[in-house]
Amino acid sequence: MSDITVGVVVFPGSNCDHDTEHAVASFPGMKPVMLWHNDHDLQGAKAIILPGGFSYGDYLRAGSIARFSPIMKEVIEFAHKGFPVLGICNGFQVLLESGLLEGALSRNRDKKFLCCQTSVRAVNGSTIFTSLYPENEVLSIPIAHGEGNYFAPPEVIESLEEHQQIVFKYTDAKGKISEEANPNGSLKNIAGIVNRQGNVLGLMPHPERASEKLLGSLDGRGLFESLFLHIAEV
Amino acid sequence: MPYIAKIKVTLRQSILDVQGKAVDHALKNLGYRSVESARIGKYIEVTINETDLAEAERIGKEISQKLLSNPVMENYSLELEQIK
Prior knowledge:
The structure holds two protein chains of two kinds. By secondary structure, chain A is α/β, with parallel strands linked by helices. Chain A contains five helices and eleven strands. Chain B is of the alpha+beta class. Chain B is 33% helix and 30% strand. Chain B is built from two helices and three strands, in the order E-H-E-H-E.
């Protein structure tokens, strides 16, 4: 069987693109392909990943300019057709700006850029991105952001909850969801959400930075594994 | 004559403005006791090469909503001035 292509979009200012490429390539049968933001060709990718970084220097608002990069037209169409799109950190910000996900990310509550290991839980294990995570397992995955404070109007939060669209929440080391375990002030400790159709996920933690033993955690692998299992089956 | 669109983007009141808060603290530390609060926003000037005010206004509004502000967390105000 030939390898399955996974597209990693490279915006000017992306800086986790090669980490993501490295993580994807570590899964047998998966072939990462780098997609330049100025192109229009998704090169036959079966899933698209928008990586972390500081696209366009975070000018204006994080993700706001990348959202209008030429390739985003194809990425949005790809998502509307039901194919999987994953946005990590700055990629999550781009997905929110593009309207593929609802809400916004503002400055961290305590004014600091946070670069640390966090505990999160996949509170919805039935998505194509989380199907292989054991229920209630506490995952150790790092965050690295200045603007990860998730906000949405009350009616949007209600609707996200009603449709099980909240996928990752910040917890303490024991898996308890509390204000103390909330690193950045996100509403409801939200670390990641999925769209209503279930094929577009955005999250602030970096699974690609928790995908090999040398990095101190393997907990991010479950996300890629779940996603790749899904695209291999389709 | 073209117009200058002067656009102010501010965070909605319900959004915590950490920059404004830091400036507010600094002003209080400087002894300005009557300072109650500070909020920080953005000021953007866009030159629009249209001679018709209504058309310049339509473009100004559209770019403010589409790119310059994020309606989930920000408000904007638009002022148009004709370049003499």
